[in-house]
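Render this sequence as a predicted structure.
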Amino acid sequence: MKLQEKNDHELIHIYISGDETGIQELVARHKAKIYTSIYMLVKDQYLAEDIFQDTFIKVINTLKSGKYNEEGKFLPWVMRIAHNLVIDHFRKDKRTPVITNQDGFDIFDVLGFYDESIEEQLVREQTYSDLRKMVQLLPAEQKEVVIMRHYGEMSFKEIADITNVSINTALGRMRYALNNLRRMMLTKETGVRIN
């Protein structure tokens, strides 16, 4: 059986038994989700790369010390580590994420779009750009849920576990976020502020 066909639990055991290919496959399998979630929270490519590396250093140290016991829940466990490292970073800096419009990693650049006219492509790019800006304007808890759900493709149970809230609270935050995004879009389209 190829490494790609093994589940996370099997890959962990391969790594713990001394075969580095186990952790390499786990990183390759989950890198996009983990990195994107970190990046969307910190908005800085180099900082996101640092936190991503720190996350896997913690993962490796935990696996090697035999303290890993999250059977079948590898990705949510790693996402929780990454999330905590992001919080630690901002706590250390005593600041909140800054909205920046720098050229860096953009999840929408890696998605393939074909058979679009130039006009359709420009409209789509402007829509995504507007949406990203609006997501950054959401309150921190709502922004976090939107990023984890839509960019990290996490379930509400995983989001609830990582953020230490109930599933209902995570769902509520998403509902408020979507309502706020709708309100922002209507305001942008009509120029009329809706309270």
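Summary. The CA atoms of residues 32 and 152 lie 8 Å apart. The chain has a mean pLDDT of 78.
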